[in-house]
């Protein structure tokens, strides 16, 4: 699958399709398009970048979901990094600002320790996901359907 076909497939035909499988080329060409789109929209105007990120969230999750299924793993695993990010976001208010620390406020050591553990977990999960998402497709039909048909 080439670049334009992958982008068209992920943005139109399979925008919110969480069933089936996605080939490596479909997924990684789409990821490249998302990275390019993010950079361009952020450079133009950061609120536009935020709108772009929201618009691309569903097809990005769907493509990752299908890609994991293509390697024989449950697609819902794609939600794990989002859960860790949510935990970090919920912990953020427990962290004192630099000004508060300069004024003598003591940081919540438990929240800081948990944040550190989540940061290490995020790094490990990031490496694991890169490895999973770059694995070859299972050549045979698996639990999630037949192998992706190459685009002609």
Automatic annotation (TrEMBL):
InterPro entries: DUF805
Keywords associated with the record: Membrane, Transmembrane, Transmembrane helix
GO cellular component: plasma membrane
TM region positions: 27-45, 51-68, 75-92, 112-132
Keyword Transmembrane found: yes
The UniProt record lists the keyword Membrane: yes
Position of the signal peptide: none
Name of protein: DUF805 domain-containing protein
């Amino acid at each position: 699958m080439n670049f334009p076909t992958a982008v068209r497939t992920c943005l139109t035909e399979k925008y919110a399709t969480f069933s089936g499988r996605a080939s490596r080329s479909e997924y990684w060409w789409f990821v490249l398009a998302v990275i390019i789109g993010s950079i361009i929209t952020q450079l133009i105007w950061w609120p536009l970048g935020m709108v772009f990120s929201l618009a691309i969230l569903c097809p990005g999750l769907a493509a990752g979901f299908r890609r994991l299924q293509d390697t024989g793993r449950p697609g819902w695993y794609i939600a794990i990094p989002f859960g860790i990010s949510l935990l970090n976001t919920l912990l953020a208010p427990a962290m004192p600002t630099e000004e508060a620390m300069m004024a003598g406020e003591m940081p919540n050591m438990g929240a800081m320790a948990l944040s550190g553990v989540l940061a290490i977990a995020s790094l490990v999960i990031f490496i694991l996901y890169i490895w999973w998402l770059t694995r070859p497709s299972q050549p045979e039909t698996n639990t999630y359907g037949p192998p992706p048909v190459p685009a002609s």
